Amino acid sequence: MGVDAGRRLQRRLLALGLTPGTRLWLVSNVGGPAIVAVRTTRLALGREVARRVWVVPEEDGR
């Protein structure tokens, strides 16, 4: 997982637990914000923010 964003947004996402190498799961991506599960919490990411987060799918789909 990584982020393509300015320093301010990068710092905000880091503070929320979205750090490089962290596993996350897409819970919902239907209208409105994208809901992702990170560690023990769920986050709502606005569309523009979600577009800046990039992920690499795991090989076995876990």
Automatic annotation (TrEMBL):
Keywords: Iron. Gene3D superfamilies: 2.30.30.90. Residues 1-57 form the Ferrous iron transporter FeoA-like domain. GO terms for molecular function: transition metal ion binding. SMART domains: FeoA. InterPro entries: Fe-transptr_FeoA-like, FeoA-like, FeoA_core_dom, Transcriptional_repressor_C. PANTHER family: FEOA FAMILY PROTEIN, SSR2333 PROTEIN. This is Ferrous iron transporter FeoA-like domain-containing protein.
